[in-house]
Amino acid sequence: MDKERSKGLSLRKKRGEGKRSAKPVIGPPRQVPMPPMPGAKLGPTSVPPQVRIRDKQMVADLVKRRMSTRFPMPGEPGVDTPAMPNLPSGPSMIAAGAGARLPVKQPERSDGVNLDLDTFRDPNFNPDAFVATVLANASDEEIRDYQRRLKDIRNRTSSDLQKNVFVNRTQFILISKEIDKLKSEMRVLRNLLNDLHNTTSSLKTDSENSSTTSDLKARKAANRSSVADLTALHMSHLQALWKQVEGAQKFLPSVPGRHIILESRHWVELNAATWKPRRVVHIVLLNDHLLVATVKKKRTDNGSSGSPQIKNVAERCWPLAEIEMVDLSPNDSQNAKRAQVMNAVNLRVGKESFVYQNEDLSKKSELLRQFKKSADELRKALRAESEDNLRRRDSMTFLAGRDPRLLENGGLLNSLSAHGSTSALFTVEGQTRNLRWVEAQMDELDERIAHRQFEEAVVSVEKLRGLGRALASNKALVAELINFKVDERASRLAAVVTTDLTENPAKKSAVKANVQWLVRLDFEDRAREAFLEARSDIIKKRTRQVRFEGDVPLYISQVALVQFTLIKNTVEIYNSCFEYRLASALVRWAKERADEYMDLFERQLQAIDQDSKVYSDCMQITRLHSTMLVDCGLDFKELKDPRLRARKDDGASALGLK
């Protein structure tokens, strides 16, 4: 036994053991048959597996149940969407790999402070509170972006407003011209009708002229007395109406010429839809209004006997110009219901409609006749009043009153009113014009100034001034009025052009255009002064922007370069825009700028010895840069030798011009 243990285990077969017992033989692996894959071709010997009927029914039931089940979509009402579960924690390598593969979503960048235009439309808008709340936590970049957006919105709104004003103004002018043309045609037609009426009147018999002079005088006296009596009678009737109808004085106060024409009682107000009676009313027709009063019964004591008292209460009152009265007769009916209503009238006031019926046919006919007559008379009176207003508008006082500054010139206004409208007719290019044409030209000039159409505005001013000079010989008043209005608008136009010239004095083309406009408007002195003043401001501004860091020659060099370059550019622009006869103003201006430079030079070198190298370097720099002025025709001796400035009394003689 010990010997076998020492040898260990062995897989070798002993010779005698095979004969004793037979052991199982382990063969090679055998393939287990599997069901074929979908789409695989079966061999001739392969047979598809058989599925039982019970298994087929079970699978069919499961598929039907799955297809008939409805799952709620996220976002539907009544559905509680569970929160997103956390990702399972994995090894660091997996997390790192996933992080490397999936892009990380960066937080969205804000576009700046939200710009709400409705906030600015609020009448109680407070700028300080708005800035404190909205822009409190904004950065500098966001504030600049917000300011830029506000400027864009302002510019866009301004351009839209200008376009709307231009369109509306153009349409208004066209309509006004068409109305004026129509009025002139109607005036001609009215004159022709008057001539026809006079011609037919002259063909009448002389029977009407048989009365004597005494009869005419007596008739005039009777008429004067009858007018006074008629006025008193109308007033008494109106006071009686106030007593009979409660609240009538509120609708119909005392007005000169107002009187009662017809009082009609026993009217019944009908429902306009069902034609059923609603209440009894009392209708009062005046020369300018129609009053409808409701008939009501007063309350009486329980112990009193007799018939109840009746009172009239004013309910509605309309002007005759706003009323349309229609007769609802059965012959003109459009349906069967209207045919059943007899002796009724329909009052139409705007979108409202009222129906009133009376049993007496004569009352309805009388009301319709008197209403038509009163409406025609009122229409004629309104037409006459409008014609009077038109004549008053055509008067000199009205046309001159459109310009408030003309009221200051009392002599011209009185002269225009005294001579009348006949002196206001003049000829322009073979056509007869009046002051209304002048006002139309002034309106067009104002429109061009508002739209900054400077070239067209200057041309209009020159044209109107030429017209004033042409009319000065035979139409002095019209010429004076035209010159007055043109000068006022030319001054306003020059102010706008001068503002543009001051804001853009560095652009040669813009300066030249603005100067030419001002010269054509006879404002050459204003253009020269505005241009030189603007250039002086630019020189001061650029000089202040030069920083002094301790090096005096460097600072003097920079200041000299800035100032002399700007002076040279100013001289070039001035010579291209103005005539040479105005060069004295330019030399005077350049001398003032040179004196300012020398003052700065002395202040900077006040504490430096004149024999030092720094002083000599600064003088050399000044001489070098001052040669730019020599090239444009200016030579200042002070710039060559600044020591000449020591003699203050002789400073004015230091100017020399080559």
Automatic annotation (TrEMBL):
Occurrences of domain Exocyst component Exo84 C-terminal (ranges): 436-637
Residue spans of biased composition, Pro residues class: 26-38
Location within or outside the cell: Cytoplasmic vesicle, Secretory vesicle
GO aspect biological process, one term: protein transport
Matches recorded under Gene3D superfamilies: Exo84p, C-terminal helical domain (1.20.58.1220), Exo84p, N-terminal helical domain (1.20.58.1210), Pleckstrin-homology domain (PH domain)/Phosphotyrosine-binding domain (PTB) (2.30.29.30)
InterPro entries: Cullin_repeat-like_dom_sf, Exo84, Exo84_C, Exo84_C_1, Exo84_C_2, PH-like_dom_sf
Segments of skewed composition (Polar residues): 199-215
Principal location: cytoplasm
Keywords attached to this entry: Coiled coil, Cytoplasmic vesicle, Exocytosis, Protein transport, Transport
Disordered, as annotated region: 1-48, 199-220
Any one of the GO CC terms: transport vesicle
One Pfam entry name: VPS51_Exo84_N
Coiled-coil regions listed in the entry: 136-199
Family: Belongs to the EXO84 family.
PANTHER family, alphabetized: EXOCYST COMPLEX COMPONENT 8 (PTHR21426)
Subunit structure: Component of the exocyst complex.
Function: Involved in the secretory pathway as part of the exocyst complex which tethers secretory vesicles to the sites of exocytosis. Plays a role in both the assembly of the exocyst and the polarization of this complex to specific sites of the plasma membrane for exocytosis. Also involved in assembly of the spliceosome.
Protein name: Exocyst complex component EXO84
